[in-house]
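User: These chains co-purify. Model them together.
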Amino acid sequence: MNSDRVRSAADGDADAMQVVMIGLGDEKFALDAGTVREIIDPIPATKVAGAKAFVPGVINVRGNVIPFADLRIRFGMPVLSHTADSRIVVIEVRIDNEPVLVGVSADRVYEVTEISRTDVQQTPRVGMHWRPEYIRFITKWRDEFVVVPNMERILN
Amino acid sequence: MTTIDPAAVFRQEAAELFEVLEAALLDLGQNPDDRELVDSAFRALHTIKGSGAMFGFDKVASFTHEFETAFERVRKGEIKPTQDLVSVALAAKDYIRALIETPDETDTIIGDAILADLSRFVSPAEAVEAAVSSPVSSPASTPMSERRQVGWHLRFEFDAQILRNGSNPLDLLDDLSKLGSCFATPLTDGIPFLDELVPEDCYLKWDVSLHSDCDKAAIDDVFMFVVDEMQLVLEPLFEGEAPQPVPMLDLPEVSIVPPEPPQVAEPTTPAPQPAAAAAPAVERRSGEPRRADDRGIATVRVQAERLDELMDRVGELVIAQARLSQLAASGNDISIKLIAEEIERLASSLRDTTMGARMVPIGSLFGRFRRLVHDLSRDLSKPVEFVTSGEDTELDKTMIECLADPLVHLIRNAIDHGIEPPAARAAAGKPEQGRIELAAVHAGAQVLVTVKDNGGGLNTARIRAKAEEQGLIAPGASATDQEIHQFLFHPGFSTAQTISALSGRGVGMDVVKRTIENMRGSIDLSTVTGESTTITLRLPLTLAIIEGLLIRVGSGRYIIPLSAVEECVELTAEDERSRSRNFLNVRGNLVPFLRLRDVFDADGEPDQHQKTIIISTGETRVGLVADQIIGNHQTVIKSLSKLHSNVTIFSGATILGDGTAALILDVVQLVALAQAQAEKQMSEAA
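Assistant: Joint model of the two components:
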C-alpha cells in the first residue's frame, strides 16, 4: 500500500490528486482521473457465458468491444437497475502489463475534483465489507469518507 | 517518394535474395545436375553484388565477387556441386548476410577462410593459394596458351533501351580505358535510316581491344550494372593479333557521326575487320537471363503496418455497412435499399481484396526450415530427408510470422528426439535416412500444418514417469495416452536424458502451445510407437474478418463462422421430446448436438421451432441448437480482453448493425464440448 502511495504522489502534485468521484450504492469512490478515458450513458451489455461474475459482459465503445465490470458485484453490494443517474466510466487499467480498457458501472458520477493525501486515513481492518487489498486508501472529501479503489487488484 | 534509407531497402531486398540463394543451394545439394538452380543462385548472387556496390557495401560486393568467381566453374558445368561445396556456399551466404547486417562485427578473416575452402573444393590443384592471396582482386585464370596474352578483345552491344535506364556506354568505355590502353571501334551497322531512328535508343556496338594484364573479372566489374542489358563477347587478345593503339594525334576524324550518343570520347578508328570477323557468334551470357523475364507479376512493397491500418479501416467500413443495411431493411425506401445493397457488395469485395493482400503462401516459411534441417542433420549426424507439401496454402501474413518460432521448435524436436541415430534405425529395420514431412492443407475454416517424423514415436512410459516425478500426475492414476502426451506441453517438462544445445531444456513445447493458442489455434499430437510422431497445428484461416452466421439464443445474438457451417436443419418434435439423448439423425448419420440455450444459460422462453446448425471441424460434425437463425453477417473479429481469458467457448466478439456486441463461437471448443458430452452419455448408457 505504501509503495502505491509513493508512486502516485510522484506523478502528481505533491499532495493533491485529480479524481472522478462516483457513487455506488451508498458509498463514494474516487477513481484516479488519469485513468478515466470517458464517461458514457449506460448501454446494454452483451452477456458472456462462463465469465467471472464481476465482468459479466462486453460493451461496444466506439467500435471497440471492451469488458464491462460491475464493482457492486465485486464489493458484494446489491445490484440495482439503471436509474437516470447511471453511467459507465471507461477506465484504462494494466492487466498483465498490458493496458486494457474496462467499462465500470457507476450509480452516479458526481464530479472531477481534487482530493488531498494529507487527509488519508488508515484503512481500518474491521468494519469493512470489502477486502482491504482492493483499497488503495481512504480519504476525506467534504467531510465524507471516500474510498480510492485499487482497480488493478480488483480486476485481476 | 518518401525518404527511405536506401541502405535499409537494400538490406530488405538482400534478405529476400538470401532466401532464394539458400533455397537454390539446398536444392542443388539434392539435384546437382539442375542447371536452372545454379543459374538462379548466380542471379541472386549477382544482384546482391550489384546493389551492394551501389549502396556502398563494398565489402559485400568484393566478397560476393570472389565467391562468384570461385563458383564460376560450377556454373560452367565443369564440376558438380557436392554436399561439401553446398555447405561451404551456405557458409559464404551467411557471411555475406553478416557483412550486410552487422558489418562492424564481421571479420574478413572468416571470409578469406571460406574462400579458401571454396577454392579447394572447386579446383583442388591450384586454387588454395590464389584465393587466400588477395581478398580484393580475384585469382587470374591464366589460360594455358603458348602465345603471350597481352589483353582482351571485347565486342559488346547494349539493349536499345539502355540509355533510358540512365546507363551511359561512354562511362563504361572510360572505365575500360582505366584498365589499360584501349582501342575502341564503334560498329555503326545497326543504325537505321533517319526516319526510323528513335533518338532515345542506342544503336551502336563496340569493338574494343584492351591492352592490359587485368583479369576477366576486372572487365566483368566494369559491366556489373548493365550485364543484364547487354551482350558481351570476351576473348583473350594475343600478341600481334590486334592493332596496337594508335597515338591520339594520328587519328583520322570519324566519318560517320553516330547519332547517339552524339559525342564519342574514345579514340575511334575504322574497325579492324579481321578480328571482328573472327569473333564468334554473339551469345547472350547464359548465367544472366534477362531480368525482365523474372518479373512476370509486378509487385509493390508495402509496409505491414499500412496493411494492418487498411484492415482496420475496412473493418470499420464493414460495421458501418451492416448498420446501413439494417436501416435500409427496416424502411420502405427502395432507392436506399438499392444503395445499401450496392455498398454491401462493394464492402464485401473490398474486404476480400484486403484480406487477399494480407495472405502469403506458407512456402516462404517452409523454405527457411530447409536450412535448419540441413544443419541439424549434419550436426547430429542423422541423415534426414526433408519433404514439404502444400507450399501454396495461403495464410494471413501475421500468422506466418507467428508460426516461424513454433515450427522451429517442432522440427528441432523431431530431428533431435524423434529421429533415431542411424545405427538404431538400422537395427529397427528402418532406412538409415530419417524423414521429416512438413505439410500444410486447408480443412474447412482451418489450415492444418503438420510436422511428421518417422522416428521412434513418443515414449509414453517415460513421459508418464517424468510427469509422476514432477508431481503432475499421481503414481498409478489412470490416464489415457493422449492425456499423458499433453504433459509435453507443460512448462519446464523435458524427458531428454541429455540436454543438447538444440532441445531438451523443456522450454519450447509450452511456448509452442501458447503461441498457437494465441492465434486461436490448437495442437494435436499423435504417435505410433516405433514408427512416427505427428504434430498437427490447427490454425484459423484469418485473424481479422470472417463471414458469419448470425443466430439468436434466448435474447442474445451470436456468430458462428460460416465456413464451419455445413447445413441448418429444424429440430424435429421427436428430437425435442427426447431430452435424454442428444443425438440427431441426419440422413442416417448420428450427430451429437448441443443445446446452446443450456450452454449459454439463456433467458426467456425457448422458441417453438428450434433450429439446428450442423458445424464441422475436419471430420467431426456437431449440431448446435439455437432459437433462430437470423442470417449472414460480415464479422469483424475483435478479440476479447484478458478479463475474459477464462472463457474458451468464444473466440472473440463483433459489433452488430445496431451497435451492440455479439460473441463469436469457437467452433473447435464447442465440438470438443459436445463430444465430451456425447461420450459421457454413451458411457452412461453402456
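Chain A has one domain: 2-155.
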